[in-house]
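lol forgot to send this yesterday, sorry. struct tokens for the thing we talked abt
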């Protein structure tokens, strides 16, 4: 089975994430997309993150009962910060019959050469790149196997959503319904008055 791995903090998951995953599974040869919820991305400040299990729950609720998608906590049991190469090695060992492909935005793709063991990733994994801001910058790596995917560009971000909620804005249509219900019920990202 060919599976797309969509890594992220998902702090919180939003319609942009879901639209990208939906597009990838319908317009490429991927059979499933797995949302790999990162407890701590090396490039992000842990203080701004909602608890990892709460972010995982938001992704579970966003996916709901769609069999094309899966939320995984594989990185919760690994050392932090999480490095993609370590997660890929673990998943390959656990699921030897699956072929894993990376899904990432063009902004993240441009920094790939700075990642831990970036050349090993380039040598062994295909990367599907969806558009973000600006032109596609190809990282200086040998044997890089990537494909630009013309997924719709969505100008929505988790930080915009967190800020809007903190300001008391109702942005429920930016988050999948079941995830929004949980987020609202738990008062995530709200600033106490």
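and heres what i got for the seq, position by position
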């Amino acid at each position: 089975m060919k599976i797309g791995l969509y890594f992220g903090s998902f702090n919180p998951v939003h319609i942009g994430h879901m639209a990208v995953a939906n597009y990838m599974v319908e317009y490429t040869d991927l059979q499933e997309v797995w949302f790999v919820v990162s407890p701590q991305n090396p490039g992000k400040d842990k203080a701004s993150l909602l608890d990892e299990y709460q972010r995982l729950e938001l992704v579970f609720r966003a996916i709901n009962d769609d069999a094309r998608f899966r939320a995984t906590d594989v990185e919760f049991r690994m050392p932090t910060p999480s490095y993609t190469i370590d997660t890929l090695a673990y998943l390959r060992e656990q699921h030897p019959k699956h072929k894993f492909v990376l899904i990432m935005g063009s902004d993240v793709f441009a920094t790939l050469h700075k990642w831990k063991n970036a050349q090993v990733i380039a040598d062994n994994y295909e990367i599907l790149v969806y558009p973000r801001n600006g032109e596609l910058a190809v990282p200086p790596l040998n044997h890089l196997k990537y494909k630009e995917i013309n997924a719709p560009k969505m100008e929505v971000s988790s930080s915009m959503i967190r800020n809007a909620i903190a300001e008391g804005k109702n942005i429920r249509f930016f988050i999948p319904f079941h995830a929004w219900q949980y987020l609202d019920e738990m008062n995530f990202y709200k600033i106490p008055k």
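The first helix runs from residue 15 to 27. anyway ping me if u want another try
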